[in-house]
Amino acid sequence: VQLVESGGGSAQPGGSLTLSCAVSGLAFGNGHWVTAWFRQALGKERELVAAIMWRGGRRNYAESAKGRFTISRDNNENTVSLQMSSLKPEDTAVYFCGAADLRDSMEIRTITPQSMTIWGQGTQVTVSS
After folding, report:
1. pLDDT tens readout for residues 11-60
2. Other Cβ atoms within 10 Å of 67 Cβ, number
3. Count H helices, E strands: the chain?
4. Over the stretch 56-79, which tens digit does the pLDDT of each residue have?
């Protein structure tokens, strides 16, 4: 099982970036699999950015991401993308892709970093002028 993030980099405030998480080795046909983006800024705790269920597509966004970020999935390619726009300096962090098989899809509303059982290696996003 492997999660591989890509798409990080630098952007100016107000700019856009798209992150991608390629998922391999998992069968999403059964269970309640979620893939989520978390981020961890220097000296801070890892926090949820956005999450999406593989079956049904239910989503959850952190307040800081609502209206600016969009999470989506491609079931054929087994990828989850995070489109980020109107970026702010406070979005600077290492962004991690995580996955877990939840007890039910409603649990997406309360997931935390501790909910994830599989992690990618992370990708740096830097927003500065």
Report:
1. 999 999 999 999 998 876 678 999 999 999 999 999 999 999 998 899 99
2. 10
3. 0, 11
4. 899 999 999 999 999 999 988 999
Q: How far apart are CA 5 and CA 25, in angstroms?
A: 15
Distance (Å, rounded) from C-alpha 17 to C-alpha 14? Answer: 10
Q: Rounded distance, CA 84 to CA 41, Å?
A: 16
Question: What does the alpha-carbon distance between residue 69 and residue 90 come to, in Å, rounded to a whole number?
Answer: 14
Structure tokens at 56: 């049904």
Nearest-10 Cα torsion for 88, 93, 97, 102: -80
Rg (the chain; Cα; Å): 14
SS (H, E, C) 88-114: CHHHCEEEEEEEEEECCHHHHHHCCHH
